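User: Design a sequence. Structure:
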């Protein structure tokens, strides 16, 4: 299978529940799902609290199949290195998982 997100995928994890790859794409500023069956790409999240994501960079999918991802540089100066971590709910709406972390990686 070959899939081109036409962006910059930084974080990739396998979702057992959907038999798909979940991708944090910094250029598209979104969390994407790539079907392993046909390679189709769908956007599952691109905003938090009605604001566009800045460029998701890392993600994990724990055993409960929730998607946890980082979206760096959400805070303005003087502390732009402080960024939150989000969790996608079942309706693909993100909620704040952890706040105020310096250079978070999951």
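Assistant: Done.
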């Amino acid at each position: 299978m070959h899939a081109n997100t036409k962006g910059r995928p930084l974080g990739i994890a396998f979702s057992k529940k959907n038999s798909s790859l979940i991708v944090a794409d910094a250029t598209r500023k979104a969390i994407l799902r790539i079907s392993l069956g046909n390679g189709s790409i769908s956007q599952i999240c691109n905003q938090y609290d009605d604001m566009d994501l800045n460029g998701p960079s890392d993600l994990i999918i724990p055993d409960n199949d929730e998607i946890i991802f980082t979206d760096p540089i959400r805070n303005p100066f003087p502390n732009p290195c402080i960024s939150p971590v989000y969790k996608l709910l079942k309706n693909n709406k993100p909620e704040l998982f952890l706040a105020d972390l310096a250079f978070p990686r999951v």
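The mean pLDDT is 88. The chain is about 0% helix and 50% strand.
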